[in-house]
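Page 42, continued from yesterday. The earlier attempt failed because a stray header line got pasted into the input along with the sequence. Redoing it now with the clean sequence only.
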Amino acid sequence: MTAPLPNIAHWTERCDMAAAFRWTARLNMHEAVANHFSLAINETGTRFLMNPNARHFARIRASDLIEIDADDATTLTRPDAPDPTAWGLHGAIHRACPHARCVMHVHSIHATVLACLDDPRLPPLDQNAAMFFGRQAIDTGYGGMAFEAEGARCAALLADPKLSVMIMGNHGVLVIGDSVAAAFNRLYYFERAAETYIRALQTGQKLRILSDAVAEKTAREWEDYPTGPAAHLSELRAILDAEGSDYAN
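This time it went through. Structure tokens are written below.
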């Protein structure tokens, strides 16, 4: 594994982020040079790491991540200014929701299809979907691209720390977590669960939805499961390392 570069703080977290970007691209959950991940690096959550503007997920390295201050109104005038919609959405969330340590937003195919349904909620159809039972913020008020006003509106929907995913109507999906591993694990499982649901709808058959009691019990079991997000991300990093990837540069 590549040794930490000199004078770069939060190196382990940067490597985790870079690995998450690489794997998201490998799963085809990215979109061109859009979509963004961010990670808070101070106690209040207002300073955060984020991918640089217009860099493809498949090329992002740990040293490429830029550091942003959500309270700095001059951010968009920096030479390395982030994408303005990334600033609008992620800046607003980190400013308003200190519990949202890691924020991942994508337009992955099945989550976006779900977000375009008249009822975009993900029901507890299977074990994976049950992970998100009672933990979804539903946004049906899409008002255009996520510049600052739209970002602030979306951030307000995540005020309850119990909510771990926001289904962004007519847009995509956003997940939060207390670490890169937690957020990425949720992103992965939400897309899997959304795909199962969309494919089940395509059969035209009646769906067998879990009861609320079983769904909530399963969601809590997911939260307490001994082999969880950290093991998932560790294995992905091990695969990238074995392939000689430069993500940890």
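Notes: The first strand starts at residue 36 and ends at 40.
Reminder to self: strip header lines before submitting.
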